[in-house]
## 1
Amino acid sequence: MTGRVARALITGVGETDYVRGTTQTTETLLLRAALAACADAGVEPASVDGVVMPSGKLSAETFVHALGIGDLRFHAANSMGGASAAAAVMIAAAAVISGQASRVLVAAGGTQFSGGRKLSRSDGSAAQFSWPAQDFRTHLERPYGLTVPMQWYSLQANRWLYETGADPAGLREVALAARAHARNNAKAYFRDRPLTAQQYDSAPYVVTPFRIYDICLESDGAAAVIIEPSGTAGRDGHRDVVLLGGGEGHADVPDDLVSRPDILELGLAKAARRVLGGLGLTAADFDFAQVYDCFTFVVLRQLEELGFCKRGEACDYVLSAGIGPGSGTPVNTHGGLLAQAHIAGMNHVVEAVRQLRGEAGPAQLARAELGLVTNYGDMSAGSLLVLAAS
Amino acid sequence: MSGTERATSQNRVAPVRGRASRPFPEPASPLFADYLDGLARGCLMIRGCATCGARQWPPRALCGCCGGQDFRPVRVTDHGIVHTFSVVYRAFDPWFAERVPYGIVVADLGDGIRMTGNYLGEDLDTLACGLPVDARYCRDGGHTFLAWAPR
């Protein structure tokens, strides 16, 4: 039973344009994605009776007004950084399965590029973000110029390269695959900008071992999904997607990478064991995986913990089996955060749904029956969803 | 010359881009009083539970072993091994903007205790996992910060 849902469906998905530069507010973007998801589901916005906000970016009350909700029965917010969106989908599923709500909206994204606080800036604005255990950040990290996630994960990456002897060419392969997938996605920021190995190799380090191409986009945009209990399917010949299972995981010492006994540990490892084990599935069963890709390295470590290969073998895996278009198990068929847009990982959920419905356009896989989505955030918190075509 | 050495000497000359020192916490949390007092005196202090004796680092409100909330300072070695590191070429804080590249060291002190500081080596290319390092206590304005020098 662990991690098994199967009584919830994703009945609608919606997205705004994904851009870098907008005059729209986070509120407007989230609400427009929400309305688009309702339209896609073929439901009246006013019929939504539950709202879950990953990272609590907008209050439930705001949705009441914009959607015309007359009887909001359920709302929740969570806080797992980049792992929030997929975990929020599981909260929504729990709400509809328990009968607390019948139609729950989950919307993520915002003005990450245009909103004023950016993790890429040198102005210290990263300090305004909400991280776990702020005292550890302010006393033990910021005075030493350790401020942003790419630096935290570089600590893991350098240890991983040292412990396992992994080939850094694997990082490049993830970057190249993301750009190759982006060519098949109309919403991808880098759709018309392929990347070559030479370009990658000639780029300077930002934070060792990460070059600019190892680092995701900062984007403006939002994406939303509608979750309903099974038994509500079939409106207008719509192909609803079945949420077979999912869950979240937190690493040991979840609020501090530096003092974590195994600094390479990911919360996803615990969640994947529970959820995939509970469903009797292994990595080989999936037709695709949309893996949270804030950094190329983070994709590699997640592939290891999902069971595509063992720790330290992800570079060999991506270099031999491949994860790009045409590979056995393509990863991030929309281009991901690296090449489509950073929509808080909800764009990974949307792309998984499109693949399972057969609506992924030029990126559509010949076989798309079972899909995996991961999210990753903060100090390596993780979440995942197992989705199936109906 | 490392970014950190440049940084400390520059700081005494002129403030850079609106902030005169590193981004130290103001005010510091009482939880970190033993650690910060130790740095100022030139030693590394963690905490030990006054009830069960369990060591605690970094400091938290309650002992993770017995739930006790009284602690005493415990001195630990200031010799370590580089557990992991980062070399930073792009600043994410204004004070560091003119001090890149610089190195960040996570030093393993044994018994599961790790402490973060800046790298004081002459050459950032020498920074690697497994390198033996010794603590150095560097002044910046009214604060002391931790740095790690190759042994």
## 2
Amino acid sequence: MSTKTQDLERVFGEKYRHGFVTDIESDTVPPGLDEDVIRLISRKKREPQFMLDWRLKAFRHWLTMGEPDWAHLRIAPMDYQAISYFSAPKRRDDAPKSLDEVDPKLLETYEKLGVPLHERARLAGVAVDAVFDSVSVATTFKEKLAKAGVIFCPFSDAVLNHPELIERYLGSVVPHTDNFFAALNSAVFSDGSFVYVPKGVRCPMELSTYFRINAANTGQFERTLIVADEGSNVSYLEGCTAPMRDENQLHAAVVELVALADAQIKYSTVQNWYPGDEEGRGGIYNFVTKRGDCRGANSHISWTQVETGSAITWKYPSCVLTGDNSVGEFYSVALANHCQQADTGTKMIHIGRNTRSTIVSKGISAGRGQNTYRGLVKILPSAEGARNYTQCDSLLMGDRCGAHTFPYMEIKNPGAVVEHEATTSKIADDQLFYCRSRGISQEDAVNMIVNGFCKAVFKELPMEFAVEAQNLLSVSLEGAVG
Amino acid sequence: MLSIRDLHAQIGDRKILKGLDLEVAAGEVHAIMGPNGSGKSTLASVLAGREGYEVTRGSVSYLGEDLLAMEPEERARAGVFLAFQYPVEIPGVNNAYLLKAALNAVRKQRGEPELDAFEFLELVRGKMKLMQMDESFLNRGVNEGFSGGEKKRNEILQMAVLEPKLALLDETDSGLDIDALRVVAKGVNSLRSPERAIVLVTHYQRLLDYIEPDRVHVLSDGRIRKSGDKGLALELERRGYDWIRQEAEVA
């Protein structure tokens, strides 16, 4: 290995800043998974019968499935019986009615993470739902949202208070049979967020969920469902962190988006799960199924993700463009540093006429990281006048990392227009030298070049998130070039 | 200001500079000329601190400091500026952003307060007028999609904004048409001052019609073979470089 590579890796060495553990009493079920555990979860959450039936159906299907092995990932075998499927901070039975009743230790945790839950301290205009291990601990700005008719609450509450909406939309985009991890999630999901924006309503603020894994040996299986009724508009942000632990922890989430006619959903993620240490010990296994259905005409779904964390990332936020003239977008920055592996991308399924999709993917590989873009553009015979534009760029730092691109295209309509552009580049020594010879430090120069590379994606993020994403990226890259 | 003694430098096993001596005082403009492969660009790169060059012997003192011991960014902050022969493209990074970061790094070193966006814009607008550059350049990616002439002008703009003490221009004239050459020369001449030294590395005498040097040096086979005033450049234009090499061999 050249000294330059060692230099590169020094800049990337920075420690994970969210790796602390909150010392809080938890109600955790023993490891293992069978029908009794699922019944227990359902009972703890006082779910109606239809919910339990759906979970059991999913579980029975999951038993017939195997883990997917087509991704460009090396994964140690997972023992699904060694995981605990439910963990909640104690005293949840009398769920807090207001923030004053939330355990102060929990509030402290979120303060440390930079997600203050107290209304007065919060960023104006962002409502937050905080999910700690398996349950949602606080949702803010509920009343203001209710005035606009927007439902934003923990998924568990929605099951109890809005069962008709849950029954109608749950699994309608990602069925319980969809894939191994989605089936597992359907069986054991514990909490998450639910959003319903009624007809013609423009949601008055950004909605945000903050996910935190705390307990050891637990999996996190949250479920998010967002329904935007006709002519409505909503922007949703998701952030995630976890403590540093030597063993791997499983995170298998499902996110479903439904956009009815003329509705628009913008979903942004900054994923910063613990990535493991420099030698690849520990870290979150992030197996996530995210899909949006542009169900109505002229609907619009946009995914933006900044993926800097997790030991393994396996996710493909997708759009099913059912409605005529509907629009799907995917903007992604994925970083794989040290021993991280990412296999991520999107699927754009064109069904309706004049449907359009845009894919912009920026992969950054450093250390021994392996970064894969995997994307499918599928244009069905019915999709008259469909268009897709894909741009897929990879940036390599050092000489031990890898970038891989697997674009799939299935075009069944001869009138479709599909464009694909791809580049692979290295942070060139001459770019670094150029910046340094202008008085800019090596580290600032790396940040500048990487941010320039990611610019097309960052500009899609809401303002506060764009700043956070840039900072996160620079922290994740500190020590990479020396 | 700059004192180079017996400088030997190589890339890998290839020896390029073989005992180069040069003295440059504040307020002077020096031109370094020489045939292809004589070591002109290597000299500029070694002075700016580019990686890949190994200095095996000799010393470079800049304002009394050991220049070779400094990192490239430290040299820049201490007032050394290299105008690149091939300016580098950095896609997505705003030209103004790089320039502002550079200026504030230099100002911080000098103990001056950092400029805010408004003060910076005011400063840079004045300099752009001098370089006859459109303001839209500020919002384009650094050198991204610039023509050869635009890149060179951008280098001189950076130099004009950063106001270095020692400016090294590496073949800034190559690839410029006559109009662009005049603009670049105007920019360089505007920076001439008793506190500042300028070293022009060039292949052709043409640039020196516009920027009049105090001293002209001929670099050949890794050493300064001959020094003189502006007349030497004209003689080179007439006679080429071979006679210098022959003279050196005889000596």
